Amino acid sequence: MKLKNIYIVLLLAAVIYSCKKEEIGTVAAPVKASAPVLTKVLVDNQATDEYVYNDSNLVVQQKSISSLSVNHYNSEGLLTSTLYYGNDDILSSDAQVSQAAANNQSIVTSATGKIGGTITYVYNINGQLIKTTYSQQSNSIVESSDFTYDNNNRIMRQTTNWGGTATGYTDYMYDGVGNLATENLYNLSATGAAELITTTQYAYDKQPNPYKTVSKLTIPGINTNENNIVKQTYTIHLPADHGPDNVSITENTYAYNATGYPISQNGNVQYIYK
Questions:
Q1: CA geometry: angle at 246 spanning 49 and 148, to 5°?
Q2: How many of the other CB atoms lie within 10 Å of CB of 46?
Q3: Which of 31, 57, 70, 179 is within CB 3.0–4.6 Å of 83 for a Cys-Cys bond?
C-alpha cells in the first residue's frame, strides 16, 4: 500500500509538471499581418480564454477562468517575465469552496485573482530560450527548467529542477513539418535513475493552428505546432505489479473558415478572431 501511495504521488507530480510546462508555453509573439489574430475562445458559448495585445501585436495579457498571465518584453520583443494571478479557491481543501470555484466561469482579473508567482526567461546570444525560473509567491523554493536543442534548433529536452535539484525531464520528438509528435516525461530518482512516467502522442490535421499566432516561446506544444491536434494518446506507465499501462485517447474535429483556420472544435468550442 505504501509503495502504491508513493507512485500516486509521483504521478500527481508528473501531471503538475506537465501543466506548468504548458503554462510556460502560453505566451505572446508578433502576429503576421496575413494571419488572423486570436482574441477569444468560447466553450459552450462561455468565454474561457481572452487575449489582449499591445500596439506591436504582442500578447500582454492572457485571461482565463483559472488564471491571468501578464507578460513583459524587452526592446527586442523577447519575453522577459510573466506574472501569474490565480484562483486559489480551486485548490482549497474545503470541498464546497473548491467546487464553487470550479463552477465559477468568470475570467480571472488582477482584482479578483491572487498573485501566484513570476516566471523569468533567459536566452542565449542566438535568442534561444535556455532557462526559465518560476518563483512562487507562497513558497521560497524555486522551480526552474533548462532547455537543450536538436540539430534543427528545436527543443529536444526540458529538464525541471526543484530547489536546485533535477527532478525530471521531458523529451520531445517532432513530425516532418515540425509539429510535436511525441513527448516522454521522466522522473529522476534521488540516485539519478530515470523512470518513464507518461507518454503523449499526437496526430494533426493540415490546417493552420491559431495558437501559433500568439506564441513567442519555443517550448513544444499547442503554441508551437503548425497544425491542429486531431488525436492525442496519453499513456500513464505503471510498474508491472500495478497492472497494464493506463491509456486514454482524445479526438478532435474542426470546422474551418475560408483561410483554413478553425472556427469551432468538437461542436462546442469557438475561436474568435479580429
A1: 60
A2: 13
A3: 70
Distance, in Å, from the CA atom of 62 to the CA atom of 52, rounded to the nearest integer, reads: 6
In the 3-class helix/strand/coil scheme, how is 134-199 assigned residue by residue?
EEECCCCCCEEEEEEECCCCCEEEEEEEECCEEEEEEEEEECCCCCEEEEEEEEECCCCCEEEEEE
Residues 15-34 pLDDT 10s: 344 444 444 434 444 444 46
Nearest one of 157, 161, 170, 240 to 198, comparing CA atoms? 170
What total of structural domains would you count in the chain? 1
Farthest-apart Cα atoms in the chain, separation: 58
Name the β-bridge partners of 186.
Answer: 169, 196
**Under DSSP, is residue 111 helix (H, G, I), strand (E, B) or coil?**
coil
pLDDT for res 13: 40
Q: How far apart are CA 45 and CA 70, in angstroms?
A: 25
CA distance 28 to 156: 21
Give this prediction's pTM.
0.81
Contact 202, 246 (CB under 8 A): no
Residue pLDDT, tens place only, 128-157: 999 999 998 777 888 999 999 999 999 999
Pairing of strands 143-149, 269-273: unpaired
247 close to 9: Cβ distance less than 8 angstroms: no
Q: What is the DSSP letter of 241?
A: G
Helices (H), the chain: 2-25, 95-103
CATH code for the domain in which residue 192 is found: 2.40.128.720
For residue 38, give its domain range: 2-273
Contact 17, 252 (CB under 8 A): no
- 36 neighbors 274 (Cβ within 8 angstroms): yes
Read off the C-alpha cell for 177.
Answer: 513539418
